[in-house]
Amino acid sequence: MHFIPEALDDYVVEHSEKEPKLLQQLTRETYQKILQPRMLSGHYQGRILSILSKLIRPKNILEIGTYTGYSALCLAEGMTKDGQLHTIDINEELYDFQRKYFDLSDYSSQIHQHLGDATQIIPDLGVNFDLVFIDADKPNYPTYFDIIIDKMNPGGVILSDNVLWSGKVIQELKKDDISTEALLRYNKLLANDPRIETVLLPVRDGLTISRVL
Ligand SMILES: C[S@@+](CC[C@H](N)C(=O)[O-])C[C@H]1O[C@@H](n2cnc3c(N)ncnc32)[C@H](O)[C@@H]1O
């Protein structure tokens, strides 16, 4: 979905960083072989994740929702030399695809894959985080926030994707639409929680930046 006119969207992309070759290759192979390729962050949002990570310089990164590894590789670009990135996905069929691209990158030994339900895995991770990217099942977004907030280092940043949910957050809520209901609750929670400061950016499907105080 384009929240700004398509021509302006194209202009924005043309005047932003180019997409690295490895990520172009990953995108091509995702579209050829994997279901629902539109889930991948893609060129423009990927460059935003990369530059934010480079500004933050995180030592420990957590990603919830790896898919084929695109956003993990973007976030990894900004981590410190000794940085570690933990990424979680519930779909075991994606594991080897992700590993192939992590191994082709400069961050092979620094990216740790976790297979399973993120709500079960996160409480057992004995690490505190400087940067977290939430990009998995929408009904669990409020739970993800609750289980990561106490694992954030002061000044740490939580990025949340798809928070505008194709504009559904301002439409009448349909019965049984548990994703939109959860996102409405989540967006309110982020805007009001005194432990963080939050700005919702109308980037692609909505990307929220929350800084831990
Ligand atoms: C939108 S995709 C992630 C896209 C990826 N971050 C990117 O930008 O390239 C969402 C992923 O979340 C995973 N997922 C869904 N529910 C999950 C859960 N409870 N725990 C862990 N991963 C989950 C899905 O298998 C899917 O691969």
List key phrases describing it:
Rossmann fold, binds S-adenosylmethionine, 213 residues, 7 strands, seven-stranded mixed β-sheet, 8 helices
Q: How would you describe the overall organization of this protein?
A:
It is globular, with a radius of gyration of 16 Å. It has eight helices and seven strands. The chain has a single domain, classed as 3-Layer(aba) Sandwich (Rossmann fold), CATH 3.40.50. The chain has 213 residues and is α/β, with parallel strands linked by helices. Strands 3-2-1-4-5-7-6 form a seven-stranded mixed β-sheet, with helices on both faces. Helix 3 runs parallel beside helix 4. Helix 5 links the parallel strand 2 and strand 3. The mean pLDDT is 97. Helix content is 38%, strand content 21%. The structure holds S-adenosylmethionine. S-adenosylmethionine (SAM) binds next to helix 4 and strand 2.
Topology:
Elements: H1 6-14, H2 21-33, H3 43-56, E1 60-64, H4 70-76, E2 84-89, H5 95-104, E3 111-115, H6 118-121, E4 129-134, H7 141-148, E5 152-161, H8 178-192, E6 196-201, E7 207-212
Parallel strand pairs: 1-2, 1-4, 2-3, 4-5
Antiparallel strand pairs: 5-7, 6-7
The structure holds S-adenosylmethionine (SAM).
Residues 39-41, 65, 67, 70-71, 88-91, 117-118, 135-137, 140 line the site of S-adenosylmethionine.
